[in-house]
Write a structure and sequence with these properties.
Radius of gyration: 13 Å
Strand order of the largest sheet: 1-2-3-4
Structural class: alpha+beta
Strand content: over 45%
Number of domains: 1
CATH class: Alpha Beta
Order of helices and strands: HHHEEEE
CATH architecture: Roll
Number of helices: 3
Helix content: 25-40%
Shape: globular
Number of strands: 4
CATH topology: Nuclear Transport Factor 2, Chain: A
């Protein structure tokens, strides 16, 4: 599995997505392009949530595939319904 190639494709794909889209669904869709390497989607689980300030919340998710796991940090603004990917880790 070429993790560097997957990280690059995710970064470029997320930069090209619309701001108002669902970031977790976008990541899952982008990873479908690597089904041969990462395997099928298994599950998505929220690991934690922390309030950053009155208008922003940080959530951490784990997206599991057959042969890899993706940890994703999102910053959410519930008032404007926006999501920003703060970072992700493929392992």
């Amino acid at each position: 599995m070429n993790i560097r190639k997957i990280k690059l494709a995710l970064t470029v794909g997320l930069l090209n997505k619309e701001q108002q889209s669902n970031a977790l669904q976008d990541i899952k869709d982008l990873m479908q392009g690597f089904t041969d390497e990462v395997g099928a989607f298994l599950n998505l689980s929220r690991l934690g949530q922390a309030r950053l300030n009155p208008s922003h919340v940080k959530e951490t998710y784990k997206i599991r595939f057959e042969r890899c796991t993706l940890d994703v940090d999102l910053v959410l603004n519930p008032n404007t319904n926006t999501q920003i990917v703060q970072g992700f880790q493929v392992h």
